[in-house]
Amino acid sequence: MKTPHFETKKEKINWLIENKSTLVAQKMATTKFADAFLHNTSFLNFDEKTIKHYADKQEMPDEFKVKVAINTTNFLDSHDDVHIDNLWNKSLRENKNILHLQEHKLEFDKIISDGKDLKAKAETFTWKELGYNYKGTTQALVFESTVKRDRNAFMHKQYSQGRVKNHSVGMRYVKINLAVDDEEWKDEKATWDKYIDQIANKKQAQEQGFFWAVTEAKVIEGSAVPVGSNTATPTIETNGEPSKDTHFEPSKDTQINEYRSLIKSILK
């Protein structure tokens, strides 16, 4: 369904309510991926320092381990989704065939790891532990992955040189609720009130007046991407060494809004 132009926030909220069942059906009928099409990231405040790596110090080993955040909860992404804590619990128990991929490409030469080389779990962090100056906590979908040169030489090099700063989950929606900041719509306002204060980039949610609260989802794969729809998805460790990256701060609202607007324009 194509989103029409709205003159006011109220018009958009009313349209979302009117078309909620169709919009939910569309979301649940599709697989959600990252916006891995973005090339101009000049407005994102990434520090040029990278994770500790092997380049120029010693020959890169043929295999090493990375710990990465494939997804994080309590963050408004460019799909207008906020993933809620524990949304992965059922899927992680049931799906034993999760893949670590390059840019969501389900091809043999794009697989980074799977099987015994990949452990997927949910782990709680403070935002500061992940390198962001947000308050509160997030539950990350974490991959502990063995990266092998003979499995994917390109991504072996990217991870070893600290170039992978974002990840994204390939997922299917299971349970999703619309949240709106409007007293006229009691159920949707109750969802808003339940979750709004735990959203890290809360100001963006308040500015647009709505979000989709995803309370259960099926994880299919997790990918390394240039920039994800959820940008709070860093490489946490490489061979046990913590990331040294400095990520964008929540005070840079204009930069984040520009990023989210550009992502949406690409997807239209």
Q: What would your notes on this structure say?
A:
- 24% of the residues lie in helices and 30% in strands.
- The chain is of the alpha+beta class.
- It has one domain.
- The strands form 2 sheets. Strands 1, 3, 4, 5, 8 and 9 form a 6-stranded mixed beta sheet that branches. A 5-stranded antiparallel beta sheet has the order 6-7-2-10-11.
- A hairpin with an 8-residue loop joins strand 4 and strand 5 (111-113).
- The termini are close together.
The total of beta strands comes to: 11
What would you call the structural class?
Answer: alpha+beta
- Cα-atom Rg, whole angstroms? 19 Å
Helix content: 10-25%
User: Helical segment tally?
Assistant: 7
Q: How many structurally independent domains?
A: 1
What's the average pLDDT? 86
- Strand-residue fraction? 25-35%
Separation of termini?
A: 11 Å
In short:
The protein is α+β, with helices and mostly antiparallel strands and 268 residues long. The protein is built from 7 helices and 11 strands. The strands form 2 sheets. Strands 1, 3, 4, 5, 8 and 9 form a 6-stranded mixed β-sheet that branches. A 5-stranded antiparallel β-sheet has the order 6-7-2-10-11.
Describe the SSE topology.
Layout: H1 9-18, H2 20-28, E1 31-32, E2 63-72, E3 81-83, H3 89-94, E4 99-102, E5 111-113, E6 118-126, E7 137-148, H4 153-160, E8 166-180, H5 186-195, H6 202-208, E9 210-225, E10 235-238, E11 241-242, H7 253-267
Parallel strand pairs: 3-9, 4-9
Antiparallel strand pairs: 1-8, 2-7, 2-10, 4-5, 6-7, 8-9, 10-11
